[in-house]
Amino acid sequence: MKPIPKPISYLFPSLRNIFFLVVFLAVLRQGNQMLNADGDLGHHLAMGRLILDSRIISHTDPFSFR
User: Fold this and answer.
1) Do 13 and 19 meet the contact criterion of CB atoms below 8 Å apart?
2) Which of 5, 9, 17, 63 fits 13 for a cystine, CB–CB 3.0-4.6 Å?
3) Taking the CB of residue 31, how many other CB atoms lie within 10 A of it?
4) What is the reported pTM?
5) 56 pLDDT exceeds 80?
6) Is the pLDDT of residue 62 over 90?
7) Which of 39, 37, 59 is nearest to 47 (CA)?
8) How far are the Cα atoms of 3, 9, 12, 14, 18 from residue 6, in angstroms, in the given order?
9) Mean pLDDT over all residues of the chain?
């Protein structure tokens, strides 16, 4: 049988809950910046698709206009 916790213990979060909340809020705050940090997400996705389709890692950039 588990001991019944004191009612005051419900008012204070545990250290695990505080850590989770801090990490969760940091990810929410930095989410867009982490996802698109270099501003070239489309290029990375297109290059990844090309690598998966051809099964070859390209040594040149097929998407540049040079």
Assistant:
1) no
2) 17
3) 10
4) 0.44
5) yes
6) no
7) 59
8) 9, 6, 11, 14, 20
9) 83
